[in-house]
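Lay summary. Proteins are chains of building blocks that fold into shapes, and those shapes determine what they do. In this project we predict the shape from the chain. Here is one chain we studied, written as its sequence of building blocks.
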Amino acid sequence: MILSATSNPTKPDGPRLPSSLHYEKGALGCVLLDGDSDRSVASERLGQLKPSLFFDLRNSAILMALQKLEAKGDSLDVISSLRMLEDDSNVETPYLVDLPNQIPSSNQFPEYLKGLIDARAKRNIKAALGTGLNSVADEELTYEEILAGLSDQFSAIREQAHTSSTEFPQIINADELLSLNIPVPPVLIQGVLHQGSKLLLSGGSKSYKTWSLIDMAISVANGDDWMGFRTNQSNVLYINLEIADYGIQQRLKDVSEAKGGNSPSCLDVLNLRGHSVDISHLKDNILAASVDMEYGLIIVDPIYMLYGDRDENSVTQMTDMLTKLDVIARETGAAIVFAAHQTKGIQSNKARIDRVAGSGVFARNVDAMLVYTPHEQEDCFTLSSISRHLLNFPDFVVEWDFPLMRRKDDMNPERLKLQQNGNRSRHFTPEDILSHVLPEHAISKNELRDKANEAGIPYSKINGLIDLAIDERKLHSWEEPRKGTRPRIMISRESQPSPEIEMIQTI
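And here is the predicted shape, written in a compact code that computers can read:
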């Protein structure tokens, strides 16, 4: 059967599915026209065309023929395509020959591609709605389950459309790259953050990360200093995932008043406390809602609320999530800032980049990090930076002075808190026990415990360190009998002396 110009494979009595013969013919015409003049351009454009974008059966057959020619390295022109299709009775020769003649210029390809993506998305939406109608008739499904299913389908449709409309970057020669006038993105926070970059604020529990981010949001929205750094005023979106509405309202009031009382009219807030949302849903909604807002800064607090079913220790799953943040940054032009918690325990003996809990991809993916490390002074923290594009600023101390973190340049940032929660065993090793056991001299375990405690080792940790030294054969122990009571436990660097040696030593 020869398909007509209106070929549409649907039931005769059914509705036509969304399609556009104009865009299908235009996209193929561009490839064929470029195939006669510049095969590399034709190949690049052909790579953006997928079978799912085509609905007319003739155009699907032509696309398949061009893809086979591409795989063989043959020309992507009309003559080669005719030869490839000579056994396909569905495509008339005049139809194929006329495709390059129906377009004004191959430069129209992006518009044709956009039309194809739009038509495919509409077909998928129609299919999703049909599935929803069928689901309504299923008495075992609740309306929440039906809506959730439709939401997932629509998110997938939007994701597919966005991915297809984003051109894959071309390989570029270094000389050409160096000749380009690539502008440096605007700086939002001097010495800290450019627009379009990702910044991670890392801190332990109760390190006032949310307060710091609220301060950052208000500072950038008003163009005020933030912890001593100058900012350039920009529209800001603060995405609150954790704090109740009344709580975030009060914090905004407290910080605004502490900074002078200027109304942050360029700050928008999205309260999502109590809403089920992961990074995929957030990305879709933010891209749709921020089209006309021109945000320079988007703050997500806290990031773990967007994990969904993802495991924060999975490199693959966390990379996928961070890539979606990259999409938000690229599409909106905004800097993305988020907070992440640190691992438990003492942080001062860990490299800054290794303190973030979960997968190491967090610290290594972002463009900049700000790290809070507890200072020896109560409610004080040393602030450090790790930056990919900017010089790291010298560490300095900030002090919590409700409701702001205030810079304290008169304090030494190197005076870090070495112990937390009374857990000091991480600072001691069996070698600290050995220093109290002299060579060729035995000492009772109780006396050793007292000496070690006087040196600063907690009693609760000494037995474990002694046992570890014995397991490593750095110390030896034995029982010394005593009349009328339990044997005394003796410790020495050498093994237990034999009775004969003991008798000689007593003569």
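What the prediction tells us: The domain at 21-165 is CATH 1.10.860.10 (DNAb Helicase; Chain A).
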